[in-house]
Amino acid sequence: MILLDTHVWVNYIGENLHRLSQPALKTIDETNRFGISAISCWEIALLVEKGKLKLGYKARYWIKDALAHPKSVLFDLDVDLLITSTQLENFHRDPADRIIAATSYLNGIPLITKDKKIRNWGQIKTIW
Questions:
Q1: Which CATH number fits the domain that encloses residue 99?
Q2: Structural domain count, the chain
Q3: Is this structure's pTM higher than 0.70?
Q4: CB 67 within 8 A of CB 10
C-alpha cells in the first residue's frame, strides 16, 4: 500500500502520466492498492472552484469516479489523524499537506509526492 499526494492522484487518474516521475509511476503501477486522503477530495474541489484545475466535468463526479478505481482506498479523516497533523515537528503550515503527511506517518506507508517540502521533512518515506 502507498499513499498518493493530491497532484499525483489527479495526474495518474487523468492519464497525465508524463507529469509523474518514472519511479513514482512504476511504484503506482506495481502496487495492489493506493491510498487517497479524504483531504485530497477537498483540495481538488477547492482547486476546481477557484478555476485552478480543469477536470472536464464537475469535481463531485470526477472524485467519485476516481475513487471507484480498483486500486483506490479512501483514508477518512478521524480525530487521531487530525490531532497528529497538528503535532508534526518541523513541518510546514499547509493544512492539507499536514493531513496527507500524517496519514502516511500513522499508517506507515510511503507517500508518492513531488512536493520538496514534504520530501525533505524526513519523517516519512517518500517516493518521487
A1: 3.40.50.1010
A2: 1
A3: yes
A4: no
